[in-house]
Design brief:
The chain is built from 13 helices and six strands. It is an alpha+beta fold. It is globular and about 50 Å long. The longest helix is centred in the first third of the chain and has 16 residues.
Length: 235
């Protein structure tokens, strides 16, 4: 299974591209990736090799893309479902963890994508494997339509991706409502709602499993987030 945790049960499953660009997402996406590559290629010359590499690196650094983050770890998902920039909100709103079945998602893929997974003895795509099947966004959208999407493993560009056990779904332009898609297709999709009354308790339990900001965000940023939460004074 793949899991995705969000701090508010009312948050919709949507990509950064869709949140940022609304109904113009498909029109503006090529420009976003083109400009990101133009300015970032000096730091990573390999960006020119693949639109999927551009998207993956950009997503990791906050670029609005069509990728949606997931994790193989339910504990990591629980961390994100029970993390807040404003810690007072931990006791004010219910949170949520989504779970999807990887095998069931894969069965929706076009035949050539299924054969590629079988040939590689894999359950998710790499950047190179996806690029061999669809080198452009237009080709990918035509292949997927509104009935499937690919799950892809990001390259281990830093420790954060490794620690978070990260994976991405590549949402085609034909799927405009991800929740509707998941409710209509995979029968094993589950939405776990976490009562706001137990979110602080869950945070303590996650700390005991060493699932905390220091592990999720290696370095001084994670350390600072972890210390801030431990010394937070509740209203």
């Amino acid at each position: 299974y793949f899991f995705r945790g969000m701090p508010d049960v009312n948050f919709k499953l949507t990509t950064g591209l869709r949140r940022n660009c609304k109904e113009l997402a498909a029109t503006l996406e090529p420009s976003i990736l083109r400009n990101f590559t133009k300015y970032a290629i000096g730091m990573d010359p390999s960006l020119s090799s693949s639109v999927w590499k551009q998207m993956m690196v950009g997503q990791h650094h906050g670029l609005p893309t069509r990728l949606l983050d997931w994790t193989r770890s339910p504990l990591i998902a629980l961390h994100f479902a029970n993390s807040e920039n404003d810690f007072d909100k931990l006791a004010r709103r219910d949170s949520v963890v989504w779970r999807i079945d990887e095998n069931e998602i894969n069965r929706l893929l076009p035949e050539k994508y299924l054969q590629a997974l079988k040939s590689d003895n894999a359950f998710v795509f790499s950047i190179d494997a996806l690029a061999m099947l669809a080198s452009t966004l237009e080709q990918y959208d035509a292949d997927m339509g509104d009935s499937a999407f690919v799950n892809i493993e990001p390259p281990s560009v830093d420790q954060r991706i490794i620690n978070q056990y990260s994976f991405f779904t590549v949402i085609p332009s034909g799927i405009t409502n991800i929740i509707d898609f998941l409710e209509q297709h995979p029968s094993t999709t589950i939405k776990y709602v976490i009562d706001k009354k137990i979110r602080w308790q869950l945070r303590d339990i996650l700390d005991q499993f060493n699932i905390n900001e220091r592990m999720i965000y290696p370095g001084l940023d994670g350390l600072s987030k972890w210390i801030a939460r431990h010394y937070f004074v509740k209203e």
